User: What shape does this take?
Amino acid sequence: MKTLKKLIPALLSAALALVMVFGIAACSTAAPTEPEVTEISLSNQSLSLTAGDRSNLVVTVNPETAYVTWTSSNEDVAVVTSAGTVVALKEGTTTVTAKAGTKTATCQVTVSAVPVVEPEPEPVGINVTAYGGYNEGAYVEFDAVPGVDVYQMTYQLNGDYTYSAAGYVDQELIRVDEATGKVRADIVGMKAGVYDIMIEAGAYSKIVRNVSVSKYDRSGYAHYGAEKAGLDGIGGYKNDGTPKDGAQIIYVTEETKNTVKAVIDGAEYTGIVNILSAANKRSGAAISVEEINNVQPLIVRVIGKISAATWKPIEYKGHLNKNGVEDPGTYEGDDKASNYYYINADDVKSADGTVSLKQKCIEYNQAAGKEDNTKIEISQNMLIEWGLNELQEDITPLNGLQNKINWDKGEFDSSYNNCFTKFNANVTVEGIGTDAELFQWGITWKQASSIEVRNLTFDDYTEDACAFEGNKDAKTYGENGAEVDKMDGKYIWVHNNQFNEGKNYWDVVPEQDKHEGDGATDLKKNAYVTMSYNHYIKNHKTGLVGGGDSQTDFGITFHHNWYEDCNSRLPLGRFANMHMYNNYYDGSTGTNMSIRGNKDNSQSAYAFVENCYFENVKKTFETSKGGVIKVFGCVFVECNSVDVTGVTKAETREQEVTNYNDYKPATATGNYCFDINTDFFYYDAEAKKTKVSYITDAEKAKEDCMTLSGVLK
Assistant: This one.
């Protein structure tokens, strides 16, 4: 045991010695030798890449087993992987080096920036910016779609989304404003209701839903008479607001005013004036409902401003007043203080004073062997040829207008830029949108029935803006209205228009009272007329009812009109029964309303003025020759001449006045008020009120007139 304990240390020492010997021997063995690299090359000596690209470089090395390392001199431009893949990062240059042993190979790398590529336009769709409904129409405004030239639109009553019975919108109603990049469509001729409107533009479509369309206020004598006669609608539209069956619809713009075409009674006419005047070829006026219905309806839609060239300005300084007094200063002509003195025929000369129109007329008659004062109709061409005046140069003349001066009994009268029509029936002339305008011309409708004029601005008209003249009149109502029914100018509706001040640049009449034109809306020998929701601005001679004491008119209604700063004739009414309700007379500067009979104490002129608002009126009422005004429910603020002879302020709606109107049933005796007779006035005898679609108190009427009167806003 002791011997074993002594042997163990010896054995451990021997083992340690062996380990040390063999370990030293292992560490002293020589490392293997790397083969010498004799050649290295790359597949490309240069590369052109775009930022973001990748490209593989292939290295050839001898021996093949040699180890290769890769580096880039500018790793901001490009980096290289251990497999030789070059990754381009941004614009610039760098050198990629492959190294094996002591040998190297390089590749010059040029990196270009990513080219700027305009992005594909994202789908824009149809961006509707505004929409809404109005009276028997609607509008939609939207941004023009890039690359789209033609837009399609359809509409239908809300609820049927198949559009199987959709109404198609005429292309003329869809207008593109190149300056603003906006598209506006006005859809007219719609029944009242709630509509969906589809817009299609190229690959895009959009539906505008729940557009509420209202109904025009068809009230007053025009509609009362038409309904009584069995006429479905006045003008080219039915009472439901849609075009009459077989209606011809034409569109006119400034560019097409002399080239637009229409077929009237089988013949083609060119130019808007010739089209409106084409009915002159008929043998007579359409008087009965049967005759009216046999005339093809015509709807003329005015787009934008239609202009007529007029005369260059010439003014005359007169020297006589109407009483022949020299140097009169100013006088009140038709209640308007005027600095235009009366002139005589000798004053009418060319602008430079070298040509006398009177002398030219005398020479013309002498050459024809006639008396010096023989009547002459001096045409536009004659006036130009004689050197009296020239037309404005900045406007293309509107072909077909009457533009003349008459020489008669030693005096001159004029008729400038007037579109004279005759025997028209079933015609609507309407403005489209908010900017339709007749500039420097107007229309006189002669012996015309079933005529509607709406949504137009009349500006700088040189004669009448919109006048109506019948040829037959009636001194009595007749049995059930038989005498009135014979009148050849009836069923007339002028509404939702704006009448600005007229402008006559060459006034040759002795009174010099045509500087502002000769009237906005004059009526002569007409029956069943409604003038409603019009805005009259600064008109001088605003409107006549009856061109002279011998003329008669039956059943004239004025309602919801705003007369703003007008002078006179609101209206000047003669032998007629007239109803004015819910009008706003605002700042009249002369005689506001003048009701005149046709002879002393004839009691032929009768106006019922109901729930109107008068404010700051210089001379509110005037009556003469038996004219009578019944006033009920009106408000007067800062007004003069309210309580004058012939005016009765009724305390009740049914109160009779002390005068009567000559239009009355044969059985009527004593005092007679047409406004409470259900035989020929829209009166609800049971409720004792006027029977119309909409009537309010005077305060509300003022508000409504300022909001609703005039053209589309």
Summary: The CA atoms of residues 137 and 188 lie 4 Å apart. The helical segments are 2-27, 221-229, 272-277, 289-293, 357-367, 380-385, 482-485, 698-708. Residues 1-31, 327-339 have pLDDT under 50 and may be disordered.
